[in-house]
Amino acid sequence: MVKNQPRDHHYVPQGYLRLFAENKNVLYVSNKQFDSIRLTSPKGIGYLKDFYTVDTVDETDSAEVERNLSKIETGCIPLLGKLLYAEDLPNAEWADVAIYIALQYGRTPHMRNKMDTAATALLNNYLKDTLTDALDDPRKYAELEREIAEKDPKLLVVHTRENIEKLVSGPKILEEFNLDNGTYVQSIFRMAGEIVDGLLKRHWTVLHAPKGSSFITSDNPLTLSIDRTLLPYESLAILLPGAMRYFPLSAKACLLITDENVGRIISHKAITKDEVRRINKLLYRESLKYAVSGNRRLLSSLM
Fold first, then answer.
1. If you compute the radius of gyration of the chain from its CA atoms, what whole number of angstroms results?
2. What are 190-212's pLDDT values in tens digits?
3. Residue 230 gets which letter from DSSP?
4. Measuring CA to CA, which residue among 276, 298, 271, 303 is closest to residue 287?
């Protein structure tokens, strides 16, 4: 590990969290696992050690991804404030905000877990198909034995044909498979690139909370909802037709991106306390581990 590199990698940016804090530095965080609330600051939450660290060519750990994400945040977070009052944005700024939202969607532990689960399923299917083919084809099975022997001849005692047949007949070959950080980081940026155009083609509405009411945020800031039953082959994803995409912009406003009335205009809507509470309940429910607010009482009411 190279010295003096940032190691606390914020998957929810500090600058974003400050938009929900009192005096820009006072936050409360509710821990769903322990059913507790504690006082903290934007620096003290929303991070994991070396979350975006990747191995570089010279075999040193690099925090370059974290630094590049920080640069994107520095440029985009002021635009979230501009969005609170804008009815339109220059194309470049609109694209920057869409990139920021798309990156936020992919860069959390919540999405990392989903990617790891999907990778496990894909690899299990691949390995099962490969081993099944080998069992049905003597030539392929002999090749498999040669590969095992090249790695370690002792493995032939463990990986007997009988054991392989049992493995293939079971529900899983691998219990869990985790992507390495390099692959995960590449997936974040590739996915963001695919999402941005879709977000720009949908309708954006800024929902404004009334006096005495405010929005929370969480470790999963971009929260999805849908008012229809998902089809068997569907999963709730950011560009799924009919999905409603909630992204809290500050304690006083939340961005809603929908499929209706597609057009390059930003609508604004004042909503009631009951509507704010409904959205906060959704944000709290879909958080992975914790919700965040500058108002302790508000978090208590959601637990």
1. 23
2. 888 888 989 988 999 999 999 99
3. P
4. 303
Question: 35-49, 157-171, 185-199, 201-215: which has the minimum mean pLDDT?
Answer: 157-171
Name the residue among 143, 132, 83, 111 with its Cα closest to residue 12.
Answer: 111
DSSP helix/strand/coil, 203: strand
CA 15 to CA 249: how far, in whole Å? 11
Residues 232-273 pLDDT 10s: 887 888 889 999 999 999 999 999 999 876 666 788 999 999
Helix (H, G, I), strand (E, B) or coil at 303: coil
* Of the candidates 260, 267, 265, 259, the residue with the CA atom closest to the CA atom of residue 240: 259
What rounded mean pLDDT belongs to the chain? 81
Tokens read off for 53: 């660290």
In sign, the C-alpha dihedral spanning 151, 154, 156, 158 is: negative
Taking a C-beta distance cutoff of 8 angstroms, is the pair 298, 256 a contact?
no
The CA angle 100-233-125, to the nearest 5 degrees, is 90
pTM of the model: 0.80
Give the phi and the psi of residue 10 in degrees, each rounded to 5: -80, 115
Query: Assign residue 235 a region: left if phi > 0, alpha if psi is -120 to 50, beta otherwise?
Result: beta
